[in-house]
Each structure stands twice: as structure tokens, then as C-alpha cells.
Amino acid sequence: MAEERAVQEYGEETLVKEIPPKAADLSKWYTAACWKAELFDYTPVRGSIALRPYGYALWENLQRQLDDRFKATGHMNAYFPLFIPESLLMREADHVEGFAPEVAWVTQGGSEKLTERLAVRPTSEVIIGVMYARWVKSYRDLPVLINCWNNVVRWEKATRPFLRTMEFLWQEGHTAHASHEESAAEVARMLEVYREVAEDVCALPVVTGEKSASERFAGALHTHSIEALMPDGKALQAATSHDLGQNFARAYGIEFVDKDQQTKHAWTTSWGLSWRMLGGLIMMHGDDRGLRLPPVLAPYQVVIVPIPKKGSEEAIAALARQVRERLAKAGVRVRLDDRDEHKPGWKFSEWELRGVPLRLEIGARDVESGRVTAVRRDLGKGEDGAKTELAVAQLELGVHALLDAIQQGLHAQARAFLDAHRFDVSSREEFFDLLRRQVGFVRIPFCDDPACEAEIKSETSATTRNQVPLAQGEALTCVACGGPAQTLAYFARSY
Amino acid sequence: MAEERAVQEYGEETLVKEIPPKAADLSKWYTAACWKAELFDYTPVRGSIALRPYGYALWENLQRQLDDRFKATGHMNAYFPLFIPESLLMREADHVEGFAPEVAWVTQGGSEKLTERLAVRPTSEVIIGVMYARWVKSYRDLPVLINCWNNVVRWEKATRPFLRTMEFLWQEGHTAHASHEESAAEVARMLEVYREVAEDVCALPVVTGEKSASERFAGALHTHSIEALMPDGKALQAATSHDLGQNFARAYGIEFVDKDQQTKHAWTTSWGLSWRMLGGLIMMHGDDRGLRLPPVLAPYQVVIVPIPKKGSEEAIAALARQVRERLAKAGVRVRLDDRDEHKPGWKFSEWELRGVPLRLEIGARDVESGRVTAVRRDLGKGEDGAKTELAVAQLELGVHALLDAIQQGLHAQARAFLDAHRFDVSSREEFFDLLRRQVGFVRIPFCDDPACEAEIKSETSATTRNQVPLAQGEALTCVACGGPAQTLAYFARSY
């Protein structure tokens, strides 16, 4: 019923009744899995989704993991205005060219027609540049290390939950430094934070490197990214870290008097990660039964399902409550599903769909034996170790060990997939063939020439994802055009 | 210099050079104290402030206190779209009448002129109503208990940091229930959460009660509020909790099949608290030296200032670092100000201005005696107990005890002020006289007649802040008009 309304009212997606097999249609599987797990819902606002409580809890956990790392690296949070006057946006030429086509414009306030349009922020370099120009006077004011958690809007026609929405939630870091050496170090430091969060928190292996000129952030000197590989062989850009050089400092007047009494422009950076990361980890880890969430992020790490038996109801319920309380006290996010209106089998499916990493089943036999049955979500039914028994006496230790194992298990599976779908090739034919077949990351020695890059894209729909410089003294030729290679570059189609 | 730029570029405030005495000009004192403490800055966006890192840290601490209580009362967070199509906004007549004059409108997206204008949310009852209509089908889906942390926009000409800004940060809770009894209980529960956070977290005593019809939220059946009293005798509405009855459920179609198989409209509530609360606590607690922050909220609860002495630099620095580490380990938010470029006296003033509750001074004598000097921000210079010595051996205990005492000290001072500026009067002359003199809260038995209320407002500029019903069987007459009294009502001018 709700499924049909979703279609009738907003018509953005085909009917979501059952989750189709993942291998059959990744795109439909993805949308259906996200929707049925109640991560999001469509709204009457084109391109905008509602992030439902279960989805928001996932985002909150990711936020906390990132925020702790931002603070540990010396950053503080702040907040800047949602609206940016048009004249300000215009000051950095590359930036406005890149973003103007995507901007939503406020032209009226109350009954007043505005004399100057206000852009709804697509990103905040501009307004933050203006403010940093006010705050930075001396080298003693540097570095400025600020992060913002906010919402941004980029006008989009298509909607794909988390991966492509008109409005999205993200964080954007903005820093200013006294030298290029320091700002470049910041760019690298935050890229490493993203890499670590992708791998250790999201269980999502990534490749890191620098974007080509054509894929660079509008107004940046250098853009670095982390890129994950999705099951269909397409890359997902999961976060970016930008070296803005002195471009924004010049456009917005961020100047300081250095130790040598000279007035200089600051060197700035920006770096961002959005709820797109959630889309990536869902698409990568999920299976035909639904989501598989990494324990570090899962809203509920453990669900307890009592298996009722006539005459033992009270003993089972008492043990279930005891298990819940002990796990909660041990810092585990635990949910006891003691609803009467559903059978255990229904609950198993429900929590598998929602990706809870570990299920504890408690029945009459368990009460007697002092054990509970533990079922891992990262392993398939019947797979070795998927179902184990935990001694109640050793409950906390056992659950923590299993959650660690599941976190690592998901990462290992995704790592194995990435390794199996990453190719180093040395012939042009093989290169184009692999790209056309969308097999994953294909890496070549690359000339980094925009013309060569454009040809590859028009032939294969694949783009450079990111690249690293060749080792000094290494003389290789570009596999695509035969010219002198500058970098080792990953190519793939992308989301 | 920065002060002058603030004025030249944005012209929103008079020159902020020094903080004027609080008693001389509360309004100027307030703005100057907030600005010099680096809580906020003006921006080139009319009516919008930037929340600087120190201000945001204060907001984050308040968020955490609220969020923990929301979760403890069964709520989860979610996120809904920033934009609301005009046609949706129009469905609840009272609501649109109340909010339309304050709405910022998006009329263009990229190069596309929109066929329907999008409101930038002034509040989210509308879009959330539409979504709840999709999610609620059966009594089993109720209650829906959701909170949102987001930004909203209400078109304003004036700017007063935190108290009146076009865009502001807040939380808005939205719940749906099967009966009016349950929704009314929710309204009361969340009002009590706000009261507790005001008193125990912000050290801000408040009066609680229901708003009159003319002060009610647009579209609500009942609005309840907490109201604090500012040093100039004006009230500050610090949070509201609304009983929306079935108004929004009818307008947006939130229906469910109840246990009795009847289809019914849900009963909804909403409740909100914004960064305005920060403005209230700053205005109430601050003094001529600047902010005085309650320890529960302060970004830094303790600042350590070493007092250098030739020959003892290393011993002093080592003790300062030891104190910092021990306090951080004990969960205290601590900052060691070991900057070389400033003298201790400068640092004292700086951290007093920024409201740090407790200063620890560490000099050569302290190193020898195994004690540190502790200076409380809640007490005046030279006041009994303002300066004490703490044994380093008992550091953590001593600091925790002092922070508790400061939290209670600020609350007691504010409570004494409120008690001294709250009047129960029984003569019309005295009532009007006290209101005209803006002495604080003036409480009377009140008829709750909008005509009487309008007369009081036009004569005195004071409005009903909130009110409680008379005790059953109590027969009193309205002090203002002599008609039969319905309530005991607080009147005051307000922010």
C-alpha cells in the first residue's frame, strides 16, 4: 500500500514490492533495499529525500567517527550562512562557472522582491573565504582549521538515494595556512582521515590519488579523492580533499602579515564527505536479503529475538532482558525485539533486511544450557561460522569478538572484490576492452593529457578516477596514446 | 581594525571597541560581549550570522544535553527537505497565514524558472505532515517520535545575534499519537525536558505555562513555553511545545486504523528550541568583564595559565602539562594557555571575557607548595571564595567540586534575580505601573480575553508570556478588566 503510494504520488521509481536479486539489477536492488530498510523515503520535493530515523542513525554514527577524527587533528566546527549573495559568488571565475548551473536561487523574501539574488549554498568556499578575510590578519591567526556539518543544494533532475539528490547532508572542512607546504600537508592529512574512515569504519576499501584537471573541483589547484568500487564495476567517488592554492584567498582577500612583515595571501584547502558514503557502503556490502551494515556504524549492532515456547515464556523473556541490559552496559547498541505480533522467522528477515550485524536467538533450550545462539550477518546461511553458540557467562567478550570479526569480514570480502577487479594493463586494446566491459578499476601509465583523456571517455564512458605520479626517473609511455606517461592512473566508469 | 571593518562592510551594529558596562546599555553590552568573545560574526548576508568555533562549541554542548534527553525519552533523529512546495504550505490555513510573511522563496533552479515556488522551511510541520501520512497506517505505527536538528529561515530585517536572525539553527521535534491524551502528555514531557535543560544545564530559571490564543503557534491548539527573565526586566521565550490537535493530521492526511478498526486522524505535537537559548544565558549570566558560562556548557571548563618566573620555567610548564593531562583524563574540558606572546594578565582578561568558569594559575610558589590557585568566574574579584587553593594531590576532586559550585552559583544568582523581579499584584493601577516600568514578570488573575489582552499590550507594550489555569473552584476577577478570571498569567515585555 505504502509502496503503491510512493509511486502514485511521486512516480520517481518503479514499484518497490520485493527486493530483486542484487546480481540481476543492482540499481533496482539498491533502491529497494534502501527503501525497504527504511533508510529513506521519497518526498514531494523533486530530488529531495527524507532521511528516516534508521538512516539518520547510520549517518549520526558516521558523523561521530569523522567528527572525533577532525577534532583529534585540531579542527573545530562552525556554521556559516545558507545564502550567498550572487555578487560574492561571482568573484572566483572558475568556481562560479562550475557551480552556477546547479544553483537554486532565492529571489523573494516575504512580500519583498530582492534586488540581489541569493544562492542557496552548493558549497561554502565563497562565504567562508569572505569571513576568513575578516578573521585572518597575522601569521599568528593561522592556521584556521574549521569544519562545518550542514546541508547543501545542487539542482539535479535525477534522484538516487544518497548517491544523487538535490539537497544533501555533508561536512565541509575549510582551512587557511601560512604556506603551501602546510596547506598541502593538510590536504594529505584529511585525505588520509577519509581513507581510514572508509576502510576501518565503513569497511570499504578505496584507492586514493589525485584527480585529473578535467575532474578537479572548480577553482582548485589540486583535488585528491578516495574512490570505492561498486559491485557493477563502477567507481564511486566517496570523498575529496582540495588544495585551493591561493585562488580563493586572492578572490576573497584572505591576507596576513607574515613573520617577515610582508603581507601575503593565505593558502586554503577544503575537503568534504557526504551521505553518499552511506550509499557506497550499502551498495557494496548488501546481499539478496538486504543490507549488511558494518558493526562500527550499525544503529543496532545486535538484535535479540526470543523464540517463544509454551511454558518457558517467562524464563526466556527474563534471559532476553538480562542479555540486553548486560550488552547495553558493555557499550553495545542492542535491540530486543519482543513484539508479540510477529513470529521469530518474520523478525529474522526484518533485521536481516535492515542489516543488523549480529542476531542472538534465545529459546527454551538456551535458557537451560546457559548459552545463546549467535547468527552473523556477514556470512551466508549455512556457511562455516555463520551460526555459533555463546556462553551467557562470557556474553560481552563473545559479542565484542564477533562484532570485530564481522567488521573485518565485510572489509575482507570487499577487499577481495576490489583486488579481483583491479587491472594493470599495458596494451591499448586490452585497456579499451576492459573499460567497455566495465570490469572495475583499470590502471595504466598515463600521459595526463586532457585530449587523450577525452578520447578515452568518448570511446568507453570511463574517466580517470585518480592517479599517482610515476616514480622519479621512471620512463613509461601512455598505454592509451603512446605519449610519455606522467602518472599511474585509475580509469573506470563512475557513479 | 576588524571592529571597524565589521561596521564599514555590514553596518549592522555600532562600533564594537570595548564592552560597555552591562548596566549602562544591556543591548550594546550583549552584542559587544558576544562579538568580542568570538561567538559570532556578522556576514554580508543580511540577517545571517556566522557561528564561530567558540560559539559552535557552546551550541554543540547544548545539543548533546538535549539530544541525550530526547533519546532517553524514546525519540530518534531524522532529516526532512529544506524546500517546501508552495501548494503544500497552503493546506493548513492558520499555519500559512502565520508564516507566509516570513518565507524566503526559491523561484529558479540553475537556468530553469520554476513552475511552482519553493519555500525555504520556516519550520517543518508541513513536509513532516506529508511524510507521516505515508508512514502511519495502523495504531501499531504510533507513536512516531522524531526530532530534527536543522537550519530554518524566517525573513527578518533586524539582526541581533542568537535572539533574532534570518537563518538560525535549532531542533524541531515532531510526534504523532493515537489519542489526544497521549499527545498532550508528550507536549508536557518535552516542556519538562526544556525546563530541566534551562535550569540544570543553562543555569537559567524559567517560568512555564501555556500561551494565550494570540501568542500561540500558527495552527496549534495549545502552545506551552518556558520563559526566562533578562536583566532589563524583559522576558525571553526560550522554547515552545505545541499541541497541534488534529489540525495538521487533517490538513496532511495522517490517518490510522485504530484497534477498534475505525480510521482516525492522528494527534500531533511539535516542540522546538533554537540557538536563542544561548543568547538568553549569555545575557543573563554575563558581567562587565564579559561572558560567564555555565560549566556544563562551557567549551573550556578550565583554563590553565602558567605564571612564568625566571629559573622556574620548566618546573612550571611541567606542572601545567601534568594538570592539563590529569584533568582531561578526568573528563574535564581543559585548555592550557601557554602562549609566549601574551602576559598572564592579558590571558586572565581574555578567558574571563570568554566566560571560562574556572582559571587555574600555576606559578613558582605553587610548584613548591604542591598547590595551584583556582579562580572562580561566577564570583566577583575579592568576593569570598572567588580565589582558593587546590592541592595538586586532590586536583580532580577539587576541580569537579568547584565546577559544580560554579554551575549552582550561576543558577542561584539568576534565581535570586528572577525571584526579586516577579510580582503578584491585585490592583489594576499597580499592574499597569509595573508593566510600564518593565520591572520583570507581573502575574495576575486574568480573564484570558483577547480584547483585554490587546488593551494591556497597547497601554504597556507587555504581552502575556504564559499562564496556568486557576485552581478548580477558585473564583477570582481579572486584575486588568474586572471580568471573571480564568488563569494566573505572567505578563512582561519580551524579546
CATH topology of the largest domain in chain A: BirA Bifunctional Protein, domain 2
CATH architectural designation of the largest domain in chain A: 2-Layer Sandwich
**Main sheet of chain A: which strands, in order across?**
3-7-8-14-11-10-9
Number of helices of chain A: 15
| Proportion of residues in extended strands of chain A | 25-35%
Q: What is the level 1 CATH name of the largest domain in chain A?
A: Alpha Beta
Backbone CA Rg of chain A = 25 Å
Explain this structure.
- Two copies of one chain form a homodimer.
- The radius of gyration of chain A is 25 Å and the shape is globular.
- The longest helix of chain A has 26 residues, at 395-420.
- Chain A has 495 residues and is α+β, with helices and mostly antiparallel strands.
- In chain A, the strands form six sheets. In chain A, strands 3-7-8-14-11-10-9 form a seven-stranded mixed beta sheet, sandwiched between helices. Chain A has a five-stranded mixed beta sheet with strand order 16-15-17-18-19, sandwiched between helices.
- The first copy, chain A, is built from 15 helices and 23 strands.
- In chain A, strand 5 and strand 6 form a beta hairpin.
- The first copy, chain A, has helices spanning 2-10, 26-36, 53-72, 86-89, 93-99, 125-135, 180-201, 247-252, 276-285, 313-329, 344-353, 364-369, 395-420, 428-436, 450-460; strands at 40-42, 49-51, 76-77, 83-85, 104-109, 112-120, 144-153, 167-177, 206-210, 222-229, 235-243, 255-257, 263-265, 267-274, 302-306, 334-336, 358-362, 371-376, 387-391, 422-424, 441-446, 463-469, 487-492.
- Chain A has three domains: 37-285, BirA Bifunctional Protein, domain 2 (2-Layer Sandwich), CATH 3.30.930.10; 302-405, Rossmann fold, CATH 3.40.50.800; 422-492, Translation Initiation Factor IF3 (2-Layer Sandwich), CATH 3.30.110.30.
- Chains A and B meet through helix 1, strand 2, helix 3, strand 3 and strand 4 of A and helix 1, strand 2, helix 3, strand 3 and strand 4 of B.
